[in-house]
Design a protein that fits this description.
11 helices; 3 domains; globular; 4-stranded antiparallel sheet; alpha+beta; 28% helix; 14-stranded antiparallel sheet
Length: 464
Amino acid sequence: MGAIENFDIQGCVAGSVTETFRTKLSMEMDLLPEDLPPEPGIQRMAGALHFAGKVTGIFSIQLTVDFGRIMAAGMLDMAPDEVDLGTDVRDLIAEITTAISGHLKSALNDAGLACVLCAPSITCGTDFTLKSLNMDRFERCVFRKDDHILITEVGLKAVEGTETDFDLSAPDAMSRIPNADHSKLHALDYQGNVSGTVIDVFESMFSLKLEPAETVSTDSFNGMCDVLSVCLAGDATGTVSIYVDSELSRRMAADMLGRQPEEIEGRDEIMDVLGQLGSIVGGKLRSALTDTGTRCALSAPFFTFGSDFKIEALNLERCERFALQAEGHTVLVEMGVKTSELANAAPAAGKDIRNPKADPGAGKTHPAAADENAPAPEDFGLEILLDIPVELTVELGRTKMPIHELLKLQPGSAVKLARLEGEPVDILASDVLIARGEVVVRNEKYGIRITEITSRLDRLKGLK
């Protein structure tokens, strides 16, 4: 635990917030000496990212919706009332949260606390609190810009005997899934895995029999609601969130502790009990993924509780939502998982991609189905060219702007590119597209993790 005790969380976060807002938004943020709680009853947004590995925990930023609109408007050169809350503000907060979390992750890796980041989430509402359970370190920083406040919170916990079979600190640790059984991965029943575990745990731990119910939205939870979440990171990223009304969660804690519901005071005991539920559900899902050869780590459980909020997990696919009921109480489960693009390329049905002889059509020639990876006619005698250097270029994106806007550019100006957040960047060799990838940061240096590569034939044609 020594490394985490000596880690300068506040210095790392304060420096990253200052730099990120200065470069992305041309805003100077002032770190305040005093702590200010969020103002109750005001529409707020929070971006959160979770760590998994040798250290687990959460980083979050919170700000008012009004400040979010001002930030997005300045970046997009629009009026604040023209900014779309559900896309422009949300995407900007997610981008800022990811940037600051990435800087924090790099600093943790440099300190020997190797970890990976889970998928980001955005919470919006007038009454909610984010909290992680039993953190070794917790730091809260408050920043001001004019009359607006930005709050950052970091909770970290060192994890002994981390169960990972890959180097969490390596830039290419999650670049592909070398040993994954793709057929098993694509056949994995995520909803069945999670729902079965939830039903079993409720019955064994809380003596509550859950039955399938019609799918309901989070709007159906009136009053106080407790949400337990766990995240996966690695070859597979994902989130599982379980919504329980506060009356039921208090009863669950009382049942586990052998007490009456009215004897449960505060939320610590409730979080302890729900945390066990999250660890079991997340652990079971992680085991199912690792059985396919997919490498991933599990975050610590974390909680959102309040009477008015919505949570949106970002950058996920294969999302599921289902509801269960017990004695008049609804339990809502939301989950989403995203695996690397290599895993998403499912093998053709009825073929053994490792053994061509298993294909009844092997040995027959079909011009329309020729192997695009087969050598081109020009691909003979290329050995003499293999040592010739080729210039690689990474293109983050392009944009067009009038000349009068171009002349206004100055240090600190932000240029919006015609590319969506999370969309792969293009990798060019001599101006020819050869691959796509995603940006990674290690030790404050940028690199590209390749996620998709063009066929060998296309690459050779482009280099003529």
